[in-house]
């Protein structure tokens, strides 16, 4: 540990410095402005907070980066090794024009890339401060770095995967007829933290007909014997990397006689998609691998979303596993494989694992059984 001790879970300064250098290289002459959030955490180890007062990391095409930050928010970056990263701190106080400060730091730029989740009030004010510069999204630049995870990031995703697996292993303790989804969800939420997450980011307990709504939350519906229940849960571990895993349960034998045959199709589809993952194939081909199985069974209309999403510091990030995405998969990419079948008004089922593209194939980070788990 250096004297300037880092945020406990941040990568060390050497790793961050390399990311900043690669960022500048990828920007290829475009100035970049990074707002607080996961992009900022990726680059400097600290996400900061987004407010009406402007905080932005300025990465000029020429010269060193700087962080423009309200003087009152600057202590929040006290753990960041700014000197080692070569980042100058430009503080401002109420009454100053922070947009002019950022613009001056960028210098003469024809194009300015702003991070995707910069609040509109800052984007529009920056446009006024840089009238000659074309504004573009920084997402396509940042994703080139963030999509391919390094060894430490992959280890963090494995850790997150193991933690959420331990929660799924305990779901049978709580999921019972006579309890509400909300009660079950509260137990799961506590376990997510107990098993090593910083917090729960989402807890979906979709019982019976609620399972047919992919982004259902929890409700006061009382779970009944024979219900099929979709449990989709996740959150960040302290290093910032997220888990996201779905398993489908049945409270006793499923009431609807067609469930087992349909579920078998889903399980085959999910496995086909996982098996298709390797470097050199497109993201779209993974979606197709799952969809082909479900369509061949005549159930295509019931699979109403893409097959997956990238995951890392954000739960949903690039690469998206969706029809039309011709992005070529490369080692280090991490994403979910989560086909679902949703019978509106009756029941739904989804199986979701996070997988990592390896040099030769695929490594899932979730290992709970894929079968319909009878509790
Ligand atoms: Zn989702
Ligand atoms: Zn999920
Ligand atoms: Zn997901």
Radius of gyration: 23 Å
Which sequence of strands runs across the widest sheet? 4-3-2-1-5-6
- Average pLDDT works out at 95
Helical region count? 10
Name of the level-1 CATH class of the largest domain:
Alpha Beta
Poorly predicted segments: 1-7
Describe the structure.
This protein is α/β, with parallel strands linked by helices and 375 residues long. The chain folds into 2 domains: 4-146, Creatinase/prolidase N-terminal domain (Creatine Amidinohydrolase, Chain A, domain 1), CATH 3.40.350; 151-374, Creatinase/methionine aminopeptidase superfamily (Creatine Amidinohydrolase, Alpha-Beta Complex), CATH 3.90.230. Helix content is 31%, strand content 20%. The protein contains 10 helices and 17 strands. The chain has helices at 13-27, 38-44, 82-85, 98-106, 120-129, 139-146, 151-168, 181-194, 259-276, 283-296, and strands spanning 31-34, 56-59, 66-70, 88-92, 111-114, 134-137, 202-207, 228-234, 245-250, 308-310, 317-321, 334-337, 340-343, 347-350, 353-357, 362-364, 373-374. The strands form 5 sheets. It has a 6-stranded mixed beta sheet. A hairpin with a 4-residue loop joins strand 15 (353-357) and strand 16. The radius of gyration is 23 Å and the shape is elongated. The structure holds zinc ion (ZN) (3 copies). The site of one zinc ion has 5 residues, from loops.
């Amino acid at each position: 540990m250096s004297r300037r001790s880092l945020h406990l879970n941040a990568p060390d300064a050497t790793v961050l410095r390399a990311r900043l250098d690669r960022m500048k290289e990828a920007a290829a002459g475009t100035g970049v402005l990074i707002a607080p959030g996961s992009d900022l955490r990726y680059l400097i180890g600290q996400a900061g907070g987004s407010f009406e007062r402007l905080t932005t990391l300025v990465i000029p095409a020429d010269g060193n980066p700087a962080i423009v930050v309200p003087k009152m928010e600057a202590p929040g970056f006290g753990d960041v090794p700014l000197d080692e990263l070569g980042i100058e701190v430009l503080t401002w106080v109420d009454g100053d024009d922070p947009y002019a400060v950022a613009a001056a730091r960028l210098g003469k730029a024809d194009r300015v890339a702003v991070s995707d989740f910069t609040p509109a009030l800052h984007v529009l004010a920056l446009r006024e401060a840089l009238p000659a510069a074309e504004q573009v999204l920084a997402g396509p630049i940042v994703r080139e770095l963030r999509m391919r995870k390094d060894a430490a990031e992959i280890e963090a995703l494995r850790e997150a995967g193991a933690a959420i697996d331990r929660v799924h292993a305990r779901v049978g303790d709580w999921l019972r007829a006579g309890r509400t989804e909300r009660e079950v969800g509260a137990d799961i939420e506590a376990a997510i933290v107990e098993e090593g997450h910083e917090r729960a980011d989402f807890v979906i307990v979709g019982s019976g007909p609620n399972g047919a709504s992919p982004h259902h939350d929890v409700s006061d519906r009382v779970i009944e014997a024979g219900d099929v229940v979709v449990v989709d849960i996740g959150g960040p571990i302290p290093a910032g990397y997220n888990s996201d895993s779905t398993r489908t349960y049945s409270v006793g034998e499923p009431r609807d006689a067609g469930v087992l045959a349909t579920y078998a199709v889903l399980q085959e589809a999910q496995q086909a998609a996982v098996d298709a993952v390797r470097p050199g194939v497109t993201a779209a081909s993974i979606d197709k691998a799952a969809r082909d199985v479900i369509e061949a069974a005549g159930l295509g209309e019931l699979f109403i979303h893409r097959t997956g999403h990238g995951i890392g510091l954000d739960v949903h990030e690039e690469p998206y596993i969706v029809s039309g995405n011709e992005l070529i998969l490369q080692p280090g990419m991490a994403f979910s494989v989560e086909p679902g079948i949703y019978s509106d008004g009756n029941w739904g089922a989804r199986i979701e694992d996070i997988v990592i593209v390896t040099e030769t194939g695929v490594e899932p980070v979730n290992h709970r059984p894929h079968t319909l788990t009878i509790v």
